[in-house]
Amino acid sequence: MKLLEDRIREDGLVLPGNVLKVNQFLNHQIDPDLMYKLGQEFVSLFEGEKITKILTIEASGIAPAMMTGLILHVPVLFARKQKSVTMNDGLFTAEVYSYTKKVKNTVSVDQKFLSSDDKVLIIDDFLANGQAVQGLIEICKEAQAELVGVGIAIEKSFQDGAALIEKQGIKLESLARISSFDDNKVHFVGDETNE
């Protein structure tokens, strides 16, 4: 998605350790117009799937997931990283390691919001090593919900996440696919410099 790639080039900042800071528009300050366009793109890419629920993980996946859910008119469910006093029984859970925060979290979804009747689209902001998405996949399996695919705003194609998902036969659609951060610049899959 050229619009997203252009925004990453304009406002993204490459940090040490293969980290891309996009807090200008995605994961601290949110550009709602851009998120709406991301939602439209995800809806187009998964057209005809009869999605009943969008599943994401808090917090940065919520904005693109909400816009996708808004366009589809389906509920958006997010896995919580912190256990709430109101969520103590009947949970689907999975262990998730955060690449950027270097911590392991148990994420959870209340069982009353996800069932075998659901056709789920997972939406998240980043795909690097795939641990967050894998946790959401495990939650779908626990719920016996049908997973129709995974939509990612920004994929780091040089890391293992995409291969992990595709190896399971799951449809993966990433809107911006980064091939490298060589010379502290963002290089996308398909750029002339990478061919």
Report on this model:
The protein is built from five helices and ten strands. By secondary structure, the chain is an alpha/beta fold. The chain has a six-stranded mixed β-sheet with strand order 4-3-7-8-9-10, sandwiched between helices. It has a two-stranded antiparallel sheet with strand order 1-2. A two-stranded antiparallel sheet has the order 5-6. Helix 2 (32-45) crosses helix 3 (62-72). The longest helix is centred in the first third of the chain and has 14 residues, at 32-45. The mean pLDDT is 90.
Summarize it.
This protein is of the alpha/beta class.
Reconstruct the topology from this structure.
Elements: H1 2-11, E1 13-15, E2 19-21, H2 32-45, E3 53-57, H3 62-72, E4 76-79, E5 91-98, E6 103-110, E7 119-127, H4 131-143, E8 146-156, H5 161-167, E9 172-180, E10 187-188
Parallel strand pairs: 3-4, 3-7, 7-8, 8-9
Antiparallel strand pairs: 1-2, 5-6, 9-10
Helix pairs in contact: 2-3
Compute the separation of the termini in Å. Answer: 19 Å
Shape, per Cα inertia axes = globular
Q: Give the strand order, joined by hyphens, for the main sheet.
A: 4-3-7-8-9-10
Low-confidence stretches: none
The helix-strand sequence is HEEHEHEEEEHEHEE
Structure annotation, total helices = 5
Q: Major sheet: size, sense and barrel closure?
A: 6 strands, mixed
Overall pLDDT metric:
90
Radius of gyration: 16 Å
Q: What's the total number of strands?
A: 10
Helix content: 25-40%
Provide the structure class.
alpha/beta
Instruction: State which percent range the strand residues make up.
Output: 25-35%
